[in-house]
């Protein structure tokens, strides 16, 4: 597996470079007016410096989390409970993070993210199980904040402070997405260098993430503050701290806005069939991904691959999928996001179908498992931009936060149930590398992905003549076949 990992990494990196070169020739740059605006470019840089540091710190913790727990001699069933604690905290804190934004302000909540994630990293130094559980809970809170607070700060200041056109917002997040993939690949290499090449152990990537979080917090505290004060409209300062004279009013207002957002989101989810089906696809697909995040290390690690390089390979495959999405939906190939979504879910189903055979107890086939994992990450690269486009079309902007909160609830609950089921397999009949628990879990994931495929096909059938689900400038449905 050692040689295979390095060969795969070189091949995938070359593939991404070739695809990116082809994509840059076929797809024109977004928002040329935005690129020519120096004030917008400066504001974009201010945001991306902090946001990319936060993403870098997050990716550094991916390759060696499971390995660290095994290094501390915990059983697979105990590690499964640690992962469940992280997912359960995501379930609890996902709606709570929206309340924090409204009660404390966007910039302060970004600072809270940096503090919580730094403490989470330091808990990895302990071998005490309870301390590690606390770390996982803090990690769940940090993940919830990362996915909401930074984007909320940017969108608010883009529209309400700088008064830039809303059409320029995707150019910033497209740039962030490209950097995000590159950071993920690089994080695997750096983590591998720290943990294996320098022999600093699996805890070293977590400690290396702390300086990035400190730098991120410093930028948020100083540069973002100057950005807001120059405009004279810092919304964070308009929101009193809890505990001040107006703290009770702030709590009441934030709570009422949060409840209204959740109610509006639930009504939108139940009244629009397209939104409901899209939520079902997202819950089934992404809950399976959480289970994959837990299982890829115990499947491959016994065969001696460098986990950081394997992680970089997986992220490079995801990057290739993202570039293929841009190519497929370009004016030359003109695929619809609905087509790409169905293809991505189908690829993920075949990936888990392969894994049910490559993880047979007593006869593991690690190379086939590695190939299946790469196929799954390629599918993820296709899936996320497709589902993001469809969400933007069928979910009204003012209800998106509430709807996405309801989307995440079944997503995390399904993932927790899956890991608890694996915990039962491991602690009962035997699992992991030597038992059948892992194989059974992959079989269950294949079934869930088949259900997601049926929902995606249903959404595609429902939207064949729906202009909201189509990308402008592409061919009509009858021209596709």
From N to C, what is the helix and strand string?
HHHHHHHHHHHHHHHHHHH
Distance between the termini: 42 Å
Structural class: mainly alpha
Can you tell me the overall shape?
globular
Residue fraction in strands: under 5%
List the uncertain runs. Answer: 233-247, 426-434, 474-481
Helix share, percent: over 70%
So how many helices?
19
As a whole number of angstroms, the C-alpha radius of gyration is 22 Å
**Largest β sheet strand count, sense and barrel closure:** none
Mean of all residue-level pLDDT scores: 81
Number of strands: 0
Descriptive account of the structure:
The protein has 481 residues and is mainly alpha-helical. The protein is built from 19 helices and no strands. The chain starts with a helix and ends with a helix. Residues 233-247, 426-434 and 474-481 have low confidence and may be disordered.
Task: Please sum up the structure shown.
This protein is an all-alpha fold.
Which properties best describe this structure?
globular; 481 residues; mainly alpha
Reconstruct the topology from this structure:
Elements (H helix, E strand, L loop, with lengths): L1 H25 L5 H4 L2 H23 L4 H7 L4 H29 L1 H18 L5 H18 L2 H13 L7 H29 L6 H28 L3 H4 L8 H25 L1 H28 L6 H22 L8 H22 L7 H29 L5 H29 L8 H26 L14 H4 L1
Helix pairs in contact: 1-14, 3-9, 3-10, 5-6, 5-7, 5-12, 5-17, 6-7, 6-8, 6-10, 9-14, 12-13, 12-17, 13-16, 13-17, 13-18, 14-16, 15-16, 15-18, 17-18
